[in-house]
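Much of our argument rests on the idea that a fold can be written as discrete symbols. The record that follows shows the chain in one-letter code together with its fold in token form.
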Amino acid sequence: MRDMYVVPPPPDPAGGATVDSAVDGDDGEGLMTYQAWKGSNTFLLQGRLIFGPDARSILLTIFLIVVPAVVFCVFVARKLIDDFSHHLGISIVVFVVVLTLLDLTFLLLTSGRDPGIIPRNAHPPELEGYEGNTPLTPGQTPPLRLPRTKDVVINGITVKTKYCDTCMLYRPPRCSHCSICNNCVERFDHHCPWVGQCIGLRNYRFFFMFVFTSTIICLYVHAFCWVYIKRIMNSEETSIWKAMSKTPASIALVIYTFISVWFVGGLTLFHSYLISKNQSTYENFRYRYDGLANPFDRGLIENFKEIFCSSIPPSKNSFRAKVPKEPAIPPRMVASSFVSSSMEKSAGDIEMGRKPVWDEASGDDDYNGTARNDGSLHEDRGLTDVSPDLSRIIPPQGMEGRSVMHSRRSSLGRKSGSWDISPDVVALAAGIGESKRMASGSGDNLTSDAQQSKRHTRL
């Protein structure tokens, strides 16, 4: 099985921790970040392009863009060149080709780049305000559970940030975990299946330009198809129906662009509204700011400038960087001190008001059970709480008829995870059974002798 690779936590200066040069990834044996990636993304060109798990849908999107453009250039725009002046006729073809290439470029920039993924933590964050070396008093339990939310003040408004159990971090404001890509994305808008990628902080601008360009192409092709039909009507002096029958490609493009413009055009208008309010699709669908002030809204002009004129922050992930092999999991360390498992269990027992029962056979080499509050083995060891105690059923030799109560240790003589009875118990059971059979056999012989003597007496 492939070894797990993660980014190690930073060394603790207070504890005198140092970085081992043998696992710094320079030896050439470590995997790259994209090879050890824990999300559901797909990488191409050795980590230079990152896509979502549904990246194949991009092929369908490209097909829906390129094929109509090719049909328009071959069957419509090429014939319009002769009807217009030389430069104007060629510009019709050039314009649709440029729009199509620009649309495909925005599609690639949207789907093939990091949308703003926040790197996962290799370990949960430290508990604030807790020192592991603080002595525990009876009735006091250390706060071993992280709070689910934290309050952050933005422009004078308190915003709650949630803790992500998968990424083991507190999400920044407007960040959400995508269940499809399995990543936390900054300023998460939505996951678009048509581009096969999350839409977030680093690709929202290109997504809007992709949708907007698609809308312009649909309107452009739709309009010039009607222009071509009109030219046929004027040149042949025929009705619109006969003109449409002479150019089936134009009819197909008119229907296709009419349907498509409702989707891409509706998305363009919807996202224009979201930009004006500085909201995301995720926030809008959850009615995040209904009746509440939006701390990110800075006005119409500033909101558009934030999306289109601000610099895109660099990616927080270096997908081609080497990552060291994951070391063995150390004991829990809080504030440069180690918290043992027995301390945690003891604290949990005190909190629940139960008396801990510790391992009675901790010195045995064959037994590695853990302490349980109910006196039974851990569930991973293969024994349950209802395991029979054979020492209470079969008494030892010389003790028949006596009530003997043994400790639970006698029932733990078996190997961990096995239901086989120890050999001495089997031998003991066999001996008792043999003695009972002998006793019953002798009793039968005495009964038969007595009956024979009575018969002789009667005779």
